[in-house]
Amino acid sequence: MTTTTQQITLAARPAGLPDDSTWSLETVELPELADGQFLVEVDHISLDPAMRGWLNDVRSYVPPVQIGEVMRAGATGTVVASRHREFAVGDHVTGTFGVTEYAVSDGAGVTHIDLDLAPAPTWLGALGMPGLTAYFGLMDIGELKDGDTVVISAAAGAVGSVAGQIAKARGCRVIGIAGGPEKTDWLRQIGFDEAIDYKSENVLKRLREVAPKGIDVYFDNVGGDILDAALANLRRGARIVICGAISQYNEETLPPGPSRYMSLLVFRARMQGFLVFDFLDRYPEGLEAIGEMIRSGRLVARETVASGGVAAFGEALLKLFRGENTGKLVLKVR
Amino acid sequence: MTTTTQQITLAARPAGLPDDSTWSLETVELPELADGQFLVEVDHISLDPAMRGWLNDVRSYVPPVQIGEVMRAGATGTVVASRHREFAVGDHVTGTFGVTEYAVSDGAGVTHIDLDLAPAPTWLGALGMPGLTAYFGLMDIGELKDGDTVVISAAAGAVGSVAGQIAKARGCRVIGIAGGPEKTDWLRQIGFDEAIDYKSENVLKRLREVAPKGIDVYFDNVGGDILDAALANLRRGARIVICGAISQYNEETLPPGPSRYMSLLVFRARMQGFLVFDFLDRYPEGLEAIGEMIRSGRLVARETVASGGVAAFGEALLKLFRGENTGKLVLKVR
């Protein structure tokens, strides 16, 4: 018995924003399961800012996706056939299955998920890589301390919204930066002390007002002018967590860096990058902490679910770069 | 008995490079010594890149020098009159006496120096703030480890030349970046493994050649393109020590920051600023370490001594920004 699946492969490397010519929708027959393999029916696919970087043919922390290769993506699904002893038919799982309706897996990097704790999309958001990124970024790279003033950019996004709620739960004063009143209203609802709308407010000036003693931890997901505004408002000993730079990922030339980086000297501050994968052996700790916050109602996990199946992947990815999502953006497969 | 002294005061805040209109040469009578004061006859005045920042009327780690105020400067000298119990006539001292021939001091921030260990100019260089800056920057901010590949910019300068020799003594591979063959030759003489001439070589490409496995510690004194070249050649877990940015101090508008700062994420690296003053209580440790290297011949302390007395201060300072000094630049007062 063979399985037919639709998949999205990389057709051409984009310059700037990906468009229709970037992707190819293919229908393929999956091979029969070998011993030690299982078949996953994918239900939700993760859309991540980092995907843009994987399309460039440059040396980075993971190899680029190759032309003709299925687009790399995290996903959730259900095991529908198995010749693997640890994964049985009916099991709910998450893994890097790619932009596909069905995937054959040998179990590498695949974990079970508990749909009683949270629905599948949350396992791609607060209980997935974004949540773990928020947790280790804040706790380990940001060295979060009680009472810190914490500023988070892209605060209504998958990582930012979890980071803000973790900081809040640890007794910090939390300021979120996001685009538009809908997002800033939501940030206030979920407990952020202040929310700055970068589309209508002067971020540098507003930060000075809402954090008059300066920022202890700045969790940066965007780069660009907002990073500079934070640099101008540091407190002595500040930690800047470099998690992403979504404002820059689609630039065709290297944009100017943070002009105010010499604030690091004036404020004896540091700026440090990280990747969640480096904390692999501590994922259980992170999931336990976030899971406990969800169970106790101290963390609101929100997802924006795009529809249209794998064929809609290209359009769904653009929503991310247009900032159309609140919380984690996922694509529903069927 | 009063003392007459020549001094340099700040006449006007410069835009860009300081010039003649920046400074005023004044002759003043110093007040008679009060109880607890002493009079210092200054012999050498320190010229520091940081001086440029003190001329701007902006919030920073020290207050700006005010118009009409004696220009702030570290200096060495001899006590020639005293009503202070810890400083006797004939004592050799160093302190922030300013650009002046004579200074009245109450002893705050003044320490004795040992001219048997090294001549006075060295107490403004390797045994002064520059040496301590090199020591704490490398050891504490750079977290120097045996076998690290260490890159130092402005490597033939007061801080860089000491930093390189400390790293070398700790068993590191040390690469210096400096301007011109005279400086790069000197760096090789004092033990640097490689020296790159940024005036005639492509620093980014040369770093890739001489540090093929990447940089563990980059000690930055210059900023600008050289910082970007280092960012492009990091090793995983790299530490960038932000000590200065001499290439940018005379810019009238904020220059673009390091475009390649997202290398911090790819390489899980950090960039951290510091000020030597934060290590005040550990100066004895730093001086002991550097002094021991001088005594045992493992550290070559070099100074460029400008002449002309305090009247030549303005011209001497420009030598620094033109890169005309090798090692520490000091002004001989008489």
UniProtKB/TrEMBL annotation, chains A, B:
Keyword Aminoacyl-tRNA synthetase: no
SUPFAM superfamilies registered for this protein in UniProt: GroES-like, NAD(P)-binding Rossmann-fold domains
Keyword list, A-Z: Oxidoreductase
Molecular function GO terms recorded: oxidoreductase activity, acting on the CH-CH group of donors, NAD or NADP as acceptor
Enoyl reductase (ER) domain location: 16-331
Membrane-crossing segments per the record: none
Identification of the protein by name: NADP-dependent oxidoreductase
Originating organism: Aeromicrobium camelliae
